[in-house]
Amino acid sequence: METSKQHIEPAAGRLGVLTVGLGAVASTVIAGVELIRRGLAEPVGSLTQMGTIRLGKRTEDRVPLIRDFVPLAGIDQLVFGAWDPIADTAYEAAVKCGVLDRFVHIEPIAAKLKEVEPMPAVFDQNYVRRLEGLNVKSKGGKRELAEALRQDIRDFKAAHSCDRMVVIWCASTEIFLEPGPAHQDLAAFEAAIDANDPSIPPSMLYAYAALKERVPFINGAPNLTADVPAMVELAHEAGVPIAGKDFKSGQTLMKTVLAPMLKARMLGLRGWYSTNILGNRDGEVLDDPDSFRTKEQTKLGVLDYILQPDLYPKLYSDVYHKVRINYYPPLGDSKEGWDNIDIFGWLGYPMQIKVDFLCRDSILAAPLALDLVLFTDLAQRAGLTGVQEWLSFYFKSPQHAPSVYPEHDLFIQQTKLKNTLRWLMGEEQITHLGIEYYQD
Ligand SMILES: NC(=O)c1ccc[n+]([C@@H]2O[C@H](COP(=O)([O-])OP(=O)(O)OC[C@H]3O[C@@H](n4cnc5c(N)ncnc54)[C@H](O)[C@@H]3O)[C@@H](O)[C@H]2O)c1
Q1: In degrees, to the nearest 5, what angle opens at C-alpha 119 toward C-alphas 113 and 123?
Q2: What atom in ligand 1 is closest to the CA of residue 223?
Q3: What pLDDT does residue 359 have?
Q4: Domains and CATH numbers, the chain
Q5: For residues 187-191, average pLDDT
């Protein structure tokens, strides 16, 4: 399907990026962008920086870099700020969380990292129990706190002469919350803010503040946050894109590649046991059963949607799926994601797959955060509002329209993302039919 090119405002000027949370992921993104900008490292893992896109037929040999094809902000145009209840600058956060080599990747850019000082956070220990922070906004109820966040966004934009802004949640995982009456529409949500209703956690105040300021909001953690009808309504009303939730960086990335392979080959599944050990602050927060429950939901959801047991009851109706996360301090930001997968083949004969992914959490998440910032800003300039399902590629639990189920298969997500870029630029969609190569 060829379409006419969509109108997209140019990516001129400075793009302010406010991270909620200045911990391992955020400091690794900020440091990485500075190192890449100075030519001291490569943006490995980033589709916007390294990826290409095929246009037209295979015989046409048109394969530009994505960043040359769509008008993305360049990394030179990014200016970072943050909120965190812990007062560490990006420099101190990077040193403490131990993701990057201090002498190779932190000290050479120390001055730049020290410039990023976190603004006082909207923080409430009832929603993240394993943390204590002093750098917090303490005055007023939820309405005043939301207004203070809006003021922070305006002040940052003015102080750094930004043309546009994006807010991305890179903060700790909040306790599990079910969508309730306060989340169903904007009027109920506004009333709940005014009533200091406990069903409005800090993350929702950040999302609300961003959207009210017409700033796109991205959620890198599994909290409900913007994944409720009230926030979607506000995003449409304000004309702003939202994207979430929970970066798909390690074990779930593996799962959403392996499970489609099993289904493509009609191989059966009896059980999938996934366990993680990690030693960073994220691991410590997730050690609290209520925060873990939030994460468990986004990690567990993927198999059912991919395997469609209702369509293939003989293969997938009786799958035992378990996910565990254990805090194990010696590992630091390194993580071991271990999967034991019991499958069966021809005539029901059992087989096993074992995956042991020795990964680095923030090294995997940082390029996703960068891509999401750049693509969400593109969406804003292209007039795309509300849920950006084409960014499902980046999330464990992608937000989606109520009328459809979420797409979890990584390669369907990638096709959707690239076809959206082709559609935006008025290029033909690629169907992979290719029959024309075999006809006279
Ligand atoms: N691969 C990955 O690293 C990965 C993948 C998916 C999701 N995530 C999620 O990303 C988030 C960040 O991970 P991390 O490793 O950087 O964790 P981290 O603990 O190093 O950093 C989180 C920061 O958020 C701050 N924070 C907590 N509540 C806040 C609030 N209300 N306002 C502002 N700041 C607040 C904390 O003080 C901390 O500095 C976590 O929720 C994690 O589950 C990470």
Answers
A1: 125
A2: 41
A3: 93
A4: 15-247+363-424 (3.40.50.720), 251-360 (3.30.360.10)
A5: 98
